[in-house]
Design goal:
The complex is a heterodimer of chains A (about 375) and B (about 280). Helix content of chain A is about 25%, strand content about 35%. Chain A is built from 9 helices and 21 strands. Chain A has helices spanning about 40-45, 95-105, 110-120, 140-150, 170-185, 195-200, 220-225, 230-235, 325-330, and strands at about 5-10, 15-20, 25-30, 55-60, 60-65, 70, 80, 155-160, 190-195, 205-210, 215-220, 240-245, 250, 255-260, 265-275, 280, 290-305, 305-310, 315-320, 335-340, 345-350. Chain A has a 6-stranded mixed beta sheet, with helices on both faces. A 5-stranded antiparallel beta sheet of chain A has the order 2-1-4-5-6, covered by helices on one side. In chain A, strand 17 and strand 18 (about 305-310) form a beta hairpin. Helix content of chain B is about 75%, strand content about 0%. In chain B, helix 2 crosses helix 15 (about 250-275) and helix 4 packs parallel to helix 9. Chain B is globular, with a radius of gyration of 23 Å. Chain B starts with a helix and ends in an 8-residue tail after the last helix. The chains are: A alpha+beta (about 375), B mainly alpha (about 280). The interface of A and B includes residues 74, 77, 78 and 104 of A.
């Protein structure tokens, strides 16, 4: 059931040329700025827009090939799409929404409703089976939208910024649900997102699309460590540290310690640290920062007027300085430095371990 | 929805503090609006005034009255059903399909709205009459005659009523959020299934409003009917025709029948307004 998509499409300002293969059970995150063509790529794969060049193959079936004139409409592609704005049917209850795809495919009403009820139960929404979308919260709606897709057992799953419209707390819950249920499908999955935390939690591989082209791809750690454009640096170039929070202190599996804001809940979590929040020193720093690590400079990348300094040590980190800041630091690769960081600069997201964490460590900078 | 109300509320709050008087329109507006309201109310008051209440029940239950009432209901409802069955697809094509000459087709399809109904009747006659383009062959080959039958009444009423439904549904379709339809297609719904299960429910307010307007128009149809279908009691003599005929022989019956028509129309408008036509935008989301 793999996806092989070579999408060439011109739509207004957008000139899209993106080739992507996704294997069974693989989740690929498509990252990129607005207008880069991520959503258009999804729409092309779903059959909501026809491609001009290239070829799309789902599970060995050609669904769109301009050269031979093949074009299967969306309903014949067995592709499930979770949209950013849930797009539930306002006049149907949650149960009827989930049953919709089954009914459309000719499953008898009673069986469709029974299966839909099963999905609502798995998504913890049994109490809301009779609610209309207007009566559901954002998180509940998005879960119903997910159930609606999973109920038809699509051979390919596309998620278009499924968490973007949700508030922070709900986002965590729905992300967890997505993770749990996407893992179970074993289907190729493409996730459009602009949040590296989503990519980390859900995706095995990251493909960055800029201006209609793939600008970079690989596993998240590699992309984060070596952003090839200012956009990637800005977007995914954040340090993600996985570990366990106890009383305001996050401990990584390797034993490194990060002091985090005191209100962070205990449990498995991801700490997100912006490279620009890290200060570097040649001597152990004095004063207030509670996070100080000694490390060694691995290499220095220049991106515009900023430099990205990769460090190795108890934590593998990327720090971002100005060119002047680097000159003032007066350090070269292999030099020992101290990195410091205020606890308040650490953003903590409760999470269970993501697919990117199969070896138990979330540090982005290590090439392992 | 509620967001809009909240945004407006500071202004509303200020108004309430300054008292309801702040909302009173300037007096010239008030006077002119009052005159307009009177202009609409007086004819009905006149009707109520002139109706011979003592004889009303007898006049209403006369066989000729009941016949006209029955015929009117059957024909206007048939015309409404025909308008929905053909008008909704027509509206869909006008709203969604891009083809050359679409504006011309739309103009043609709603022409009967602005045409004098008598002219519509003459045109129908030219098409479906015994020597008409369609009516001629129909009669010569199958012996079927349409003019001066109940079918002719229904055709005439559909001819003038359907544009109301078409315009209403077309506007509804144009204003529709199409994203749920896309979602339906990706869930495996064919175009037809999507149309029935997603599009139609979403335009229901526009559909109901259009159907009510079309029905009201059909119920009141006079000119095209009398020209194309004639004035045969029990066969083509609907309420408006009966009223017109009675006016020459029995004014009392004309008044009573008129009052019945007014009551039906008014009842439908009031009854449906809040439920289907009023309130904010249709719940498309």
């Amino acid at each position: 059931m793999t996806l092989r998509a070579d999408v060439g499409l011109t739509l207004g300002q957008l000139d899209l040329e993106v080739a992507l293969s996704v294997d069974d059970g693989e989740v690929v995150a498509l990252l990129g700025p607005n207008g880069a063509g991520k959503t258009t790529f999804l729409r092309a794969v779903a059959g909501l827009v026809a491609i001009d060049r290239g070829r799309i193959e789902i599970g060995g079936t050609v669904v769109d090939d301009p050269a031979t004139g093949v074009f299967l409409p969306p309903e014949d592609r067995a592709v499930g799409v979770v949209f950013q704005e849930h797009r539930l049917f306002a006049h149907l209850t949650a149960l009827e929404n989930v049953a919709f795809g089954l009914r459309a495919r000719g499953v008898p009403r009673r069986e469709a409703r029974a299966r839909a009820a099963g999905w609502l139960g798995r998504l913890g929404l049994s109490d809301h089976a009779g609610s209309r979308p207007a009566q559901l919260s954002g998180g509940q709606s998005q879960r119903v939208a997910l159930g609606r897709v999973l109920a038809v057992d699509p051979s390919l799953i596309l998620l278009d910024e499924p968490l973007a419209a949700l508030d922070a707390t709900t986002r965590i819950e729905v992300r967890r649900d997505l993770r749990r249920h996407l893992e179970g499908t074993g289907r190729p999955t493409v996730l459009v997102t602009h949040d590296p935390v989503d990519a980390h939690a859900l995706a095995h591989r990251v493909v960055v699309v800029e201006g209609g082209r793939v600008s970079q791809q690989g596993d998240l750690a590699t992309v984060t460590a070596h952003p090839r454009s200012a956009y990637v640096a800005e977007l995914v170039g954040t340090n993600l540290v996985a570990g366990d929070v106890r009383a305001g202190v996050l401990t990584t599996p390797a034993g490194a310690v990060v002091v985090v804001p005191g209100d962070a809940p205990d449990g498995p979590a991801l700490a997100s640290i912006r490279p620009s929040a890290i200060a570097l020193h040649r001597r152990p720093p004095e004063g207030s920062p509670r996070n100080t690590w000694e490390g060694r400079i691995v290499d220095v990348d220049r991106l515009g007027d900023r430099v990205r300094v990769r460090l190795t040590g108890p934590l593998d980190l990327v720090a971002e300085l100005t060119v002047a800041g680097l000159a003032a630091l007066d350090a070269s690769p292999d030099d020992p430095v101290w990195a410091s960081l205020k606890a308040s600069e650490v953003a903590v997201v409760p999470a269970d371990a993501g697919p990117g964490d199969t070896d138990g460590c979330g540090e982005p900078a290590g090439e392992r | 929805m509620t967001g809009a109300t909240e945004v407006r509320s500071p202004v509303g709050a200020r108004r309430t503090r300054r008292g309801a008087g702040a909302d009173r329109p300037p007096w010239p507006v008030l006077v002119l609006a009052g005159v307009a309201t009177l202009f609409f109310a007086l004819p009905f008051l006149g009707l109520l005034w002139r109706v011979p209440w003592g004889d009303a029940w007898r006049l209403l239950t006369e066989e000729s009255s009941l016949q006209a009432l029955r015929l009117s209901l059957v024909c206007s409802l048939s015309a409404t059903v025909l308008s929905v069955v053909f008008g909704v697809p027509l509206a869909w094509v006008l709203a969604r399909a891009g083809f050359p000459g679409r504006r011309l087709v739309r103009a043609l399809c709603v022409l009967s709205m602005v045409l004098p109904p008598v002219v519509g009747g003459v045109a129908l006659f030219a098409a479906f009459g015994r020597r008409g383009v369609v009516g001629g062959p129909l009669y010569d080959w199958f012996g079927v005659r349409i003019t001066f039958t109940t079918v002719a009444v229904i055709l005439a009423e559909t001819f003038v009523a359907m544009p109301f439904l078409v315009l209403s549904v077309e506007a509804g379709l144009r204003g529709l959020d199409r994203r749920p339809e896309e979602a339906a297609r990706t869930l495996g719904a064919s175009r037809w299934y999507t149309f029935r299960r997603v599009t139609l429910p979403a335009v229901r307010p526009a559909l109901v409003a259009g159907a009510v307007l079309a029905w009201a128009r059909a119920l009141g149809e006079f000119g095209a009917t009398i020209t194309f279908a004639g004035n045969l009691p029990g066969k083509t003599q609907t309420m408006p025709l009966a009223v017109y005929l009675a006016l020459e022989s029995d004014t009392g019956q004309a008044l009573v029948l008129s009052l019945v028509l007014v009551a039906i129309s008014f009842g439908v408008l009031v009854g449906l307004r809040d439920r289907w036509l009023g309130g904010g935008p249709p719940e498309v989301r």
